[in-house]
Amino acid sequence: xxxxxxxxxxxxxxxxxxxxxxxxxxxxxxxxxxxxxxxxxxxxxxxxxxxxxxxxxxxxxxxxxxxxxxxxxxxxxxxxxxxxxxxxxxxxxxxxxxxxxxxxxxxxxxxxxxxxxxxxxxxxxxxxxxxxxxxxxxxxxxxxxxxxxxxxxxxxxxxxxxxxxxxxxxxxxxxxxxxxxxxxxxxxxxxxxxxxxxxxxxxxxxxxxxxxxxxxxxxxxxxxxxxxxxxxxxxxxxxxxxxxxxxxxxxxxxxxxxxxxxxxxxxxxxxxxxxxxxxxxxxxxxxxxxxxxxxxxxxxxxxxxxxxxxxxxxxxxxxxxxxxxxxxxxxxxxxxxxxxxxxxxxxxxxxxxxxxxxxxxxxxxxxxxxxxxxxxxxxxxxxxxxxxxxxxxxxxxxxxxxxxxxxxxxxxxxxxxxxxxxxxxxxxxxxxxxxxxxxxxxxxxxxxxxxxxxxxxxxx
Length: 460
Ligand code: UDX
Description:
43% of the residues lie in helices and 14% in strands. The chain is of the alpha/beta class. Helix 17 (437-443) links the parallel strand 13 and strand 14 (446-448). Helix 9 (212-242) runs parallel beside helix 12 (293-320). It is elongated. The termini are far apart. Bound molecules: uridine-5'-diphosphate-xylopyranose (UDX). Residues 160-164, 223, 226, 230, 264-266, 268, 271-273, 275-276, 337-338 line the site of uridine-5'-diphosphate-xylopyranose. Uridine-5'-diphosphate-xylopyranose binds next to helix 9.
């Protein structure tokens, strides 16, 4: 049976792999392939153990792989065959030269653009899926059209808004799909072809079209707004800890105003993940590039507050534990940057672990899904660290628990048993406010929530 369309994604990472799996699942009439230069990663996509953990992804891949979903390292051959090419290569923060630490590193996508140009013998629609700085599509068009091969490329921007841990759900029923195109007849035709693909399972009124630059910018702005909400509520936590106020109560009261809304108002140890910091820094860099320094400072403050929030957490631990952590054993409950993912990129856990090791504490790290990544992240850092799957075992003989990730299992543990196994006085620092603080205090713990006064057994 021939396929109606051949869809290719260059880059089989989080976004590329999951998006292709969902398209293949929803559209059996298309042949969908994800390619990557990383043969080991492709090997894992073709194995029983996928390279990422994401709820429902295993089932979807199992149902489609070999039928209309394929993972391959044959990049050039697959480009030749494809009608539509998604580009989902990584765009990490550049760590060298101009824009180091701020701008997006575009070397991978540029190589990809050249490769597409070299391998194509027929017209193609190229879809920017990775988060790019504004006007990347223009550069991509310039590279693609810089030969006389007579092949036509139409470049679209189609940013991905999925969140880790809910990626499949977000792809199956997104708030919106955004497609940016050139306003030319060819650009609009290419846009309509992509709309057709999504319209297989997404209502038309949720498929939003715009000009290509608005689309690119919207992705950066959406992430900047989300991160800004977290930093805004976190900017209240210090004040609440010093007074009789409770951040959760403030967030509830504030969030009930429908103009504000109640999402993304959970005070925390700080946001992590591969997108927020990178995208805001990219926005800051763009602003500076256009001499918009006030705007750049404004957005940069969102990241600075987040760095401060992580440091504040460590200082709180240090001060509470009598200003010395040397030789003390501290258990980290969770290493992932949020629950329901094994991803540890930019996780506050890494910052906290480094700082505690600097203070010469010993660490026992536990996490239901992220232990392998934690081990890799902390490899080469001096200090005594053990990695323990079982949280009870991890907490035993520790002076303190620092809860970093809001995994449900941590809410349901037997804290009396844990308390009995720990060194006294025993401390809990709840970086996510998910535990029953009053109950922990009654068990005997000294409890330090985020954005609420501590509950301690010490007389001032
Ligand atoms: C984010 C965006 O949500 C998504 O649309 C975009 O495509 C990629 O970036 P993700 O990084 O997967 O997704 O996670 P998200 O759920 O947004 O959380 C980001 C961080 O903020 C996490 O560390 C999370 O724990 C933290 N967070 C979130 C809070 O601290 N408080 C909140 O109220 C919400």
